[in-house]
Amino acid sequence: PLLHENGDLLDIYAKQKERFLSVYKDLDLSFESNDHENNHMLRVLFLCIVLADHYKLKKALRPTLYNAAMFHDIGRTHDYEDTTHGAESYEMLSNISSSFRNDKLLGNLITYHCIDDDQAFAFKNDNEKLMYNILKDADALDRQRLGIRELDESYQIGRAHV
Q: How many whole angstroms separate alpha carbon 154 and alpha carbon 162?
């Protein structure tokens, strides 16, 4: 099973997925996407959980990374290359809660995830750069279509699918 020092990575995913779905259902999203729908954001979340664990990202920073993964594409209006959807996604998220609105690092991660690295915001320290790279890598990995369906956490080594 996927384990880290504080437990099962799939348990972390399941808790974050529940949070995501509770917020996602209240969003007014008119764009129907084949590539950037809620399952894409959940797969990016899972990849971020695994990469954050692998690179030993500070635990205090992980919730911000997870929020960025879950909501990075909610502002999309099409499936084509778009360097402005990050800013639009953060604006939409900011309207949901002041806790999102007041998180500058979250805003920078979401806003700049779709911009070339050489044009993106200069992240202040190594931890912020690591978060940015994890988000961009997770997004790119999923765009390669490693999976077409939602992650099913019941499929894992040693646990029968029920």
A: 7
Q: Residue 54, SS3? A: helix
- Characterize 69-103 residue by residue with b for buried, 16 or more Cβ atoms within 10 angstroms of its Cβ, and e for exposed: bbbbbbbbeeeeeeeebbbbbbebbbeeeeebeeb
Contact 57, 130 (CB under 8 A): yes
Sign of the dihedral through C-alpha 147, 81, 135, 23 = negative
The whole-angstrom separation of Cα 125 and Cα 147 is 33
Q: Is beta strand 7-8 parallel, antiparallel or unpaired with respect to 3-4?
A: antiparallel
Residue 109, SS3?
A: helix
**What are the structure tokens assigned to 91, written together?**
């604006």
Distance CA 20, CA 103 (A): 17
Joined together, the tokens standing for residue 16 give 């974050």
Q: What pTM, to 2 d.p., does this model score?
A: 0.81
Q: In this predicted model, what pLDDT tens digit does every residue of 41-86 receive, in sequence order? A: 899 999 999 999 999 999 999 999 999 999 998 888 777 788 998 9
| Cα(73)–Cα(88) distance, integer angstroms | 9
Write the pLDDT tens digit of every residue in 14-29. Answer: 999 999 888 887 776 6
Is 13 within 8 Å of 45 (Cβ atoms)?
Answer: yes
